[in-house]
Design goal:
about 60% helix, mainly alpha, about 160 residues
Length: about 160
C-alpha cells in the first residue's frame, strides 16, 4: 500500500460525509453539527447538556457552539433553562419539537459509524484511534477544531 491509497481512502470518507451533510441540510434544514447536538441531548438523562459538554463533544469553540444553539433555539428544537444548582449558568434542553425532529431524521452516517465502532474490540478501536492520530499529525492539524464550516476569517492554507 502506498500513500496514494491512503489519500484516496481519506477522500472517500470526506466525500461520503459531505454528501450526507448536504442531504441532511436539504431534507431537514440542519447541519450535521446541529443534528449531533440534538442527538447528544436525546441520549442524556433529562434530555439536558451544557454548553461546555457540547464544545468538548464536537471539538468546536464556544462561539461556534453558541451559533449552533442559537439556530436550534430559534427553530424551537432546544431551550436554554436555568441550572437548578447554579442560577448563573444555563442547561441546554431538548424540546418536544426537537424529539419529534429526531424521530423523523434518518440514522445518519455518523450514527451508523458510531454503532459499528462501538462493536469493535477495544484493541481494534485503539488501533483505529492511533491510526487517525497519526494521519492528523502527518497533516499537521492537531490544533484544528472540527468546525462544520469554514468562516471567512479562517485561512484555507495550513
Amino acid at each position: 500500500m502506498d500513500s496514494l491509497d491512503i489519500i484516496v481512502s481519506i477522500r472517500k470518507i470526506v466525500r461520503s460525509l459531505n454528501l450526507e451533510s448536504k442531504s441532511i441540510q436539504k431534507d431537514f434544514g440542519l447541519s450535521i453539527a446541529q443534528l449531533l447536538c440534538l442527538g447528544h441531548l436525546q441520549s442524556n438523562p433529562g434530555y439536558r447538556s451544557t454548553h461546555k459538554e457540547l464544545m468538548n463533544l464536537l471539538s468546536l469553540n464556544s462561539s461556534t457552539i453558541s451559533g449552533i444553539l442559537n439556530r436550534l433555539e430559534k427553530r424551537g428544537y432546544i431551550a436554554r433553562v436555568s441550572n437548578e444548582v447554579d442560577r448563573r449558568s444555563k442547561s441546554i434542553m431538548l424540546t418536544a419539537s426537537g424529539i419529534k425532529l429526531l424521530e423523523e431524521t434518518p440514522n445518519v452516517l455518523h450514527d451508523r459509524l458510531a454503532d459499528r465502532l462501538d462493536k469493535l474490540s477495544e484493541d481494534d478501536k485503539s488501533m483505529v484511534d492511533k491510526s487517525l492520530k497519526i494521519i492528523i499529525s502527518a497533516m499537521e492539524i492537531k490544533g484544528m477544531e472540527a468546525s462544520p464550516l469554514l468562516t471567512p476569517e479562517e485561512p484555507i492554507d495550513p
